[in-house]
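Chapter review: from sequence to fold.
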Amino acid sequence: MKEAIEELKKEIGNDVTLVAVSKTKPNEDILKAYDLGLRDFGENYVQELTSKMDSLPEDINWHMIGHLQTNKVRDIVKRNIYLIESVDSFKLAKEINKEAIKQDKKVNILIEVNIANDPNKTGIHTTELDNLINEVKELPNINLKGLMAIAPHTEDTNQIRISFKEMKKLKDKYNFELLSMGMSSDYKIAIEEGTDIIRIGTKIFGERDYSKR
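The token string follows.
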């Protein structure tokens, strides 16, 4: 783990945030990464996220990167979630805003874009992005910080690069602060194309055992 984190830090420099995707991984593994200097961790499932938030150091920046159901919003908003990266509907944004008002706080979010228009993936279609952004900007307790995307599931690196280029264009078009894209298999392309956040799991923690989630 130490060698992997050191290598990643050298590759990304100071301008890209490294989010260690810790889903299915025990607290001991997260603490090892924490002791090696990481402070940003990402989780896909609310129950696992809240359990870890309650038992791990308070200065960890927790990123919700998985699909979020409206009935789970309260559980993470009341715990000072650092960034919800996977907002893909106005219904979800409204629920986050409602809970944020109750808690008298503002919540940072990214809109997840289905850049590959893959029917099997979550995220909003690019043709609907304008409307969603305008609607979300009217919500008083939401800080819309930028966009998130997952690359198309392909070994064609050129197709991945095209998708990442398109995401960077969208970030610039709307003058957003943050763009989150790039995982263990494609983060180098994401860095080259201007991402601000990469989400790395396997490269840091090794393969996952989903039976232990």
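Two observations follow directly from the output. The chain has one domain: 2-208. The beta strands are 17-21, 40-43, 61-64, 83-87, 107-113, 142-149, 178-180, 197-200.
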